[in-house]
Amino acid sequence: MNKELLERYIVGNTNEAENNRVQGWLDEHPENRAEYQKMKNVFLSYLYAMNKELLERYMVGETNEAERMIVEEWLENDANNREAYLQMKKLWDSLPKPLEVPEVDVDKAWTEFKIARDRRASELTGISKKKTRIIHWNWWAAAGILLICMFGFYVFDRSQREEIHFITQDGVRQDSLPDGSMVTLNRNSELAYSRTWSNKNRNVELARGEVFFQVHKDKKHPFVIATGNTKITVLGTSFNVRRIPDATEIIVATGLVKIAYADKEILLRPEQMVTIRDTDTMRVEKKPVQDKYYKYYVDSKFNFVNTPLKDVVQLLNRAYDYRVIIDDPALEKIPYTAEFEKNSLAEILKVMAKSLDLKVEVEGREIHLINIQKR
Which of 103, 114, 202, 201 is nearest to 156 (CA)? Predict the structure, then answer.
């Protein structure tokens, strides 16, 4: 049974056909169910040992039904899990709560301020000391109300800038943004956006990793992605953005994308790509997209067409939590053509080994591809 499929089944991210497939496999033999339960326990322990963000969302009631059930099952499985969660919740509850700002009628406060100001100006000449004190007190009271309003606006502005983060570690995550746009985050990625988007632009920030965007079309509100020193602006399109050390790679699948950096702008059309370093100030050359597998993490599909084996291995290293090594440099330029869909790394390597006459040896987290003909 496909390990990736079982993991998605555990977290409730499978469709009806996949559910039936897994359920049929579980019902085939008691050993399958025992194997599944063992894998599930290990997977959940690993998942929640790493996934602090999900536990925090569970604490504040922001998990969906599948996530809630998995967290509660994890808590029930082991007393150590419950103890770790209670310690984390205790720390969470001890954090200072957001400051509650009193509600203020802004229009009324401003009107009172102007009345007090005008009254003071008209009665400034010939008034008694007593009246002067009263008017001064009214002015300072209105000014105090105005300060409260300004403080309220400051807190409101801060709340507008509060960010929501999508973070992945060892898995792929697909989610929707408030405007209906879809994002798919590859492993080890982080995307952030304001809790309340502005009325002018829909702004997000890619801090690290790789995201495939499917942007909902809205001519009045451009969609802007900031990453490194680059800004990407679109209306409605789909494209891939990958943040690599000190550079950003953009590949367009559909639509039109505008990229701004330094004082330059580039327009990218479908099947075009560009890589912009943070230090680039000169115009960067656009290139045609050479490979068809940049979306591998979106649809779980690899489509290699005369792809050098070195590039195939580099992609497998990005996609799976292993390090695949080509022992013979002469193999690196061998062209490889194959298509894989929702296959495990073991299944892919088995096919590669058979078609290229290679031997596969596993040493911990390293996998060596060995040229049999040289032995």
Answer: 103
CATH class as words, domain 296-374? alpha beta
Torsion, Cα 221 223 226 227, to 10 degrees, reads: 180
Helices and strands, counts by H and E, the chain: 11, 18
Amino acid at 182: M
3-state DSSP call for residue 226? Answer: strand
In this prediction, residue 69 has a pLDDT band, given cuts at 50, 70 and 90, of confident
Residue 175 host element (H or E): strand 173-176
Who contacts 4 (Cβ-Cβ below 8 Å, separation ≥6)?
300, 342, 344
For the entire predicted model, the pTM comes to: 0.54
CA atoms within 13 A on the CB side of 251: 16
Domain positions in the chain? 3-94, 106-161, 164-288, 296-374
The lowest-confidence range among 120-134, 161-175, 356-370 is 120-134
